[in-house]
Write a structure and sequence with these properties.
Elements: E1 15-19, H1 24-35, E2 39-44, H2 50-53, E3 58-62, H3 68-79, E4 90-92
Parallel strand pairs: 1-2, 1-4, 2-3
Bound molecules: nicotinamide-adenine-dinucleotide.
Residues 19-20, 22-26, 44-46, 63-66, 94-96, 98 line the site of nicotinamide-adenine-dinucleotide.
Length: 101
């Protein structure tokens, strides 16, 4: 059995970007990371629910992963001085489009 890391076991202060964060797997990942003290940029095409936005360290970020302009804006932000605090140790790409069969 793999031991679950304790809330302060190397997670506190890290930064994560989670897409598809409004519900389902992305919302669960957001809750788990926030409970471990990670700063979470919770990105989704739909609004991030109030119960998630109320969690310490969770920041809602409107983002459509299929929109090149949204991706470009996110990349420009991450390259800017405004994002110099972002160290991005975690990236969860969850929400999006499934193409083909
Ligand atoms: N739940 C499962 O058991 C399971 C199993 C295998 C694969 N998956 C895949 O994992 C992904 C997530 O599953 P889920 O059950 O959490 O789905 P879900 O539908 O509950 O949640 C998906 C989230 O992604 C967001 N989203 C959709 N399009 C987006 C876009 N263009 N940009 C940003 N966000 C977008 C939605 O708003 C939603 O909040 C899906 O692609 C699903 O096919 C899920």
């Amino acid at each position: 059995m793999i031991a679950d890391p304790t809330p302060t076991d190397g997670w506190t202060g890290r930064v994560a970007l989670v897409t598809g964060a409004a519900q389902g797997i992305g919302a669960s990942v957001t809750r788990l990371l926030a409970a471990r003290g990670v700063q979470v940029m919770a990105a989704d095409i739909q609004a991030i629910p109030p119960e998630l936005r109320a969690l310490p360290g969770v920041h809602a970020a409107p983002l459509d992963v299929t929109d090149p302009d949204d991706i470009a804006r996110a990349a420009l932000f991450l390259l800017s001085d405004d994002a110099r605090h972002v160290t991005m140790q975690h990236l969860t790409v969850d929400g999006g489009a499934t193409l083909g069969a």
